Structures
1.
Amino acid sequence: MSTDLVQLVTAIAQRARAASLVLATTPTARKDAALLKLAELIPASADALLAANARDLEAARANNLPSHQIDRLTLTPARLDQLAESVRQVAVLPDPVGTTLEEWTRPNGIHIRKRRVPIGVIGIIYEARPNVTIDCAILCLKSGNAAILRGGKEIFHTNTAFAALLTQALAETGLPADAVQLIPTTDRAALNTLLKLDTLIHCIIPRGGESLIRFVAENSTIPVIKHYTGVCFVYVDKDADLAMAESILINAKTQRPGVCNTAEQLLVHADVAETALPQLAAALTAKGVQLRADNDSASILARVGAAHTPATPADFTAEFLDLILAVRIVPDLETAIATINRDSSGHTEAIVTRDETAARRFQDAVDSAVVTWNASTRFNDGFEFGFGAEIGISTDRLHARGPMGLNELCTYKYVIDGTGQVRG
Amino acid sequence: MSTDLVQLVTAIAQRARAASLVLATTPTARKDAALLKLAELIPASADALLAANARDLEAARANNLPSHQIDRLTLTPARLDQLAESVRQVAVLPDPVGTTLEEWTRPNGIHIRKRRVPIGVIGIIYEARPNVTIDCAILCLKSGNAAILRGGKEIFHTNTAFAALLTQALAETGLPADAVQLIPTTDRAALNTLLKLDTLIHCIIPRGGESLIRFVAENSTIPVIKHYTGVCFVYVDKDADLAMAESILINAKTQRPGVCNTAEQLLVHADVAETALPQLAAALTAKGVQLRADNDSASILARVGAAHTPATPADFTAEFLDLILAVRIVPDLETAIATINRDSSGHTEAIVTRDETAARRFQDAVDSAVVTWNASTRFNDGFEFGFGAEIGISTDRLHARGPMGLNELCTYKYVIDGTGQVRG
């Protein structure tokens, strides 16, 4: 049985590698034709997709999954239409492949071109979100990569139905059907096999909770690009425009509290805390945000009768993903920077200030993927960056940091033209 | 004991992380001053360095190391002068940190700048080469990264002496002394601890033999950039200039047979094999190269009385690192491409041809880091590329592919300027 699984997964990876070599030189128009075919097939296959989804939902109810999880699993005709629309949007994005990134000629006359090319074979490991199957497949396809998808068991039948559509769209437009393959089992042993196939698979992107990502990072011999969630800070400087600080903080904390670029902690400069904190607290409380305050901020909040609870040490590095905000007062800019570099997750931080010198120092010294000045943390996002698509937000530093769009799904190669040069 | 080691290595990594935050915003002139101080200290400390090296050499002789290995371990006053000169050369290279890689303004007015910044803390794991300690330390320092060095036991005393100089150079020029640290033990357990410190160390670069690299890749939870050696191909097309093919092949195979960008295999187009192969074989044999021929090439070589031995299947994927060359005849360009994509290591391949269409197809379809047209494979090298320095040649696809210079020791961050924008 285990040998069978190893053979099954290895054969999938070998076929993906072969398909990737074809895809790497496939013209844009042919890739786009496959995407448009898929966009057509999704609504046309609504019955089959909804029937497969119903099987997953039945199992979810039988397993007493909480209702918000069941909602995330659920496909509807409207959601299918949205999905088809997102496929059409990727089809019209520019093809990242083939762009010359740099070129130069050496004194000996060789000409060197650094050209963007697909990574090769990308493994996507994800949990129970039906849209991920299509989202990841189309971004890999557009960027010329073969994809191996391994989704969660809660959504297995839905994924299988989507994978069949992908195969059909590829085959009907003359692209290798193996360019997108789903691992047809959710057995953990199959995943373990996959993560060791480092001669066939070039990159693993896990999408899901921290335990999934950690499992993948610890067990993979293939390079992994991690998408951890974030512990993001907003620092209100002594020269902040208070109305702006309030607006940015409310947006960063409450617009979508469950995502990685939401703010989890507020730092306020001591010089303005007496004024700023009560105003910010009132606005946050009005939006239903609970404050977890350090001693200094708690005494100010208590004095004005603002709701809060004392913070525990764990709150200062916590990712709440909820309407909860840790609050601290810092004596100066440098302490704000040091606090962030120690306690944030390096995802996204914001400074609110009128003082450009302070802003530049903050942006230089804060060691995070995205550092905003007078803008919400919520802008760390591929669509907000104008990438047109996003496979995730990398919390790694190598290869891709921050939003990952089509360009970030590519690597490069060097193409050298000579006239017979040899090395002296 | 094991707990002590864990604490020791963790403390080193914590200090490195703190130093990296200082280095990230250290001006170029101050980094260069530390490098120039080091260049001054190396010859001035020759006695201490040579004495430390003598202890390693004594142990090497007692352990009966082969003479070429002992030679690699050996420092001389002339080698120290070369090393000091290489430090001065890095000091005058442009600082990669701070460069704006891209910038744009979004319709909502936020301005996004993608700025090159240091990776952070880099762990270098290497074997018995004394120059690696200085080479890697200075490239990390110039690019604003803190370095943790873990060298082989054969060169431990020499490394310790170099590390002391590095500390002195940093301290005397006011940079954090923890910016470069040597793990003061070659205990494998210390390495295992190091490779798991993924919250403090951001990148591991192993430099050494395949077994070392594999060990690191399999045991690290920190992203690894691998520098495997290469199985590089030269393809002589039917439209090749034969004199050029000979010159490129001789250079690629014999200029330095023990390195990763040396050619290990020759493919010849069947249409020209009868003419080309005898001429190429004669030139190679004259340089002492042994040919391992497939059936088709063996029969041509036999007919003209050229020395060769029959190839085994293993020869067609072998990295000889010696004056040995596998030889095969291919019926056409596409077979050459498919053969290379199956059997090469994806490092560097060359086509020799007068036919630009064939050359472009080869450069597009061959999935290797560097693909040359009418130029030697030996050009896959940071100095030959004009990078001014090289920490190695990456055989990975993520982050860096091919020669890694100072730019490749950096990542980027996004700096966003707003005027109060929030996400709608």
2.
Amino acid sequence: MNSRWVSLPDHAADAPGGLPQGFRAAGVACGLKPSGGPDLGLLVSDTVGTVSAARFTRSGVLAAPVILCQERCRLDSLRAVVANAGNANAATGRRGVDNAARMQGAAAMAVGLDPEVVAVASTGVIGVQLPDQPITKGILAARGELAPDGGDAFGEAIRTTDLFPKTAAVDVTLPSGTVRVTAQAKGAGMISPNFATMLCFVQTDAALAPETADLLLGVCVKRSFDRISVDGQLSTNDTAILMASGASGIRIAPESDDELRFGEALDAVLRQLALLIVRDGEGAKRVGRVVVNGGHQPTVDAAARAVANSPLVKAALYGGDPNWGRIAQAVGGVLVDTAPLDVDIWIEGVQVCGRGAAVPFDLAALEQAVAREEVEYTVGLPGEGAETEVFFSDLSHDYVTINAEYTT
Amino acid sequence: MNSRWVSLPDHAADAPGGLPQGFRAAGVACGLKPSGGPDLGLLVSDTVGTVSAARFTRSGVLAAPVILCQERCRLDSLRAVVANAGNANAATGRRGVDNAARMQGAAAMAVGLDPEVVAVASTGVIGVQLPDQPITKGILAARGELAPDGGDAFGEAIRTTDLFPKTAAVDVTLPSGTVRVTAQAKGAGMISPNFATMLCFVQTDAALAPETADLLLGVCVKRSFDRISVDGQLSTNDTAILMASGASGIRIAPESDDELRFGEALDAVLRQLALLIVRDGEGAKRVGRVVVNGGHQPTVDAAARAVANSPLVKAALYGGDPNWGRIAQAVGGVLVDTAPLDVDIWIEGVQVCGRGAAVPFDLAALEQAVAREEVEYTVGLPGEGAETEVFFSDLSHDYVTINAEYTT
């Protein structure tokens, strides 16, 4: 992961594989993916007293596993996750919820836990009932393969159109000692900042109070998966779950230096994964970052999302075209009835528009700058004190191919 | 224009060319378009007492000609329009407004009218200053070619990425006699329903009170250009102008049968042009129509626009894929925190989703139905009494090519 936009804090370092103490995971093929690839993942914490926190999509059309988690799980003390790719179990009605409950029940039985501490997650095609038998078979197979180094296999099993795996493993040095944080994410399409369409599972052997886990996950999701867009499309299945086994014996007390440093590391891990999702955006060649500042937070947020979701801006990013007129148009288009709007625009630090009007710049130099893998846009609106950022992928021929020729 | 979605009322018939009485128009090449094609249009009403009405984009970033029209024109008594393609004169600051004013002044002098009754419109690239000399030269050349059958030439001169001209000419039989309505429109990209990114000029030899002209244009724009989307991108330059010369001697009294019938014909003409814009949407192969009904108008509106602007829905339309899960996702994604949402979905009259869950249907038959040029989606939300429609183009490889490889 080489991005100028995200870096680990000094007190965190990439860890050489292996889940945090107390966790085991596995990923197997159960036959949902036509490719025959891994499509069922199982993750377990063996530690009694494991603490957890979760966040879900806010879509009006919730997938069955999301409904199940929200209605029938103890989200602050989850011990296991069962997840599948290849079928979203969304728009499947009561039968879909029953199927998700059966999946939960089978996983609970396989790992010897109460169903209410087993979370369920699905990703894949919408509107198709989940077949029962492959899931049950897959869970049994996964149980046999649960291992402390099974995080990568679990990450493989939740991929759909993802071209590459999205995992992280860091050791975090705290005043009280060293803890490990690992995470597995998936996401490539149907990604929108609210929060992004994705699955992400995070494990740590630090000991957290439920309130701390919830607070840290909430803040870090807002700064990561809430700030990315592939195509502005909110999914039915978004799920992020943090589990803290406490098996390291190191307790993160609220408002301590431990909490601060742990939070910084968690933030960096989630931002890395979020950026990987954008970089792996369906068909993406380049990644953009738009930073908007001004005096009014909702206006700044709306402008940033308008730029990140504009097909014209995204196509220009793909084409390596420093077409700032489309940035101005996207901002103006969402801030209706605000003319005359004093908007300033910079691309890669070069000012191209000042107070709503063209500013002379070196076009050849800027064309070179926007031909790189990452392009940064800055938009200044009137006022001060509010700022936001959104990371986004471009709009390419491959995005059209992937979404026109395949039923995803 | 063969669409099952728009038809002329019985009392209107296609007219064999020629502007309504009292109008002359021309279109010439002045050198703004690299292709050397026609890029400057001039339209004049020779009748004193001509009445007009206008609507403009609500973008926060208004193009100079829009600012000029709003600040320095008598919009209820316009006598002429000068329009150019190849340069939007947008994001050009004070100098841009000065250039638009010079364009207005030159046109006013050429046709012998006060500048304040001459409207200015531009379309093309954003952020480039309008060159003075070609415009002046073009206006003089156009003056020499003004003719009663110049409507098509005028329509040619306002095209940008449009693949085909968008004009209409109908004779409308009213209780009081027959009047003519003609119109020229342009638009292919940066098209969003609020209202669509386009230019449209409408002429009639009926006599209208200013209030009637304003009311009729307002209502018809809401039912046409407000209801289409190519890419959800609101432009900086949208302009629609209706001019009524009254030269037929037939007066449309408020709340008369004349007004009703004239309104029906105007509505059909603008809807035809709006649908032509969607059909000519950049790279478009197929056109979709989404109809949403339910109990709450803002919800119904938001859902329809979400479907029409979803890149996933648009790519599926392009691919001929009856992937209704993406319709459910798009609706749910914009109606956050409303789960469980009882949504019904029909494609080409076949129900595919009932109360949020899959309904069995004949996939092969539906695949055939969505392979045609026009595809209709119907979404039912809870409640009754609110309904809307949006017409939209698909998302194709050519859209990406046009917007990645060309600076438009």
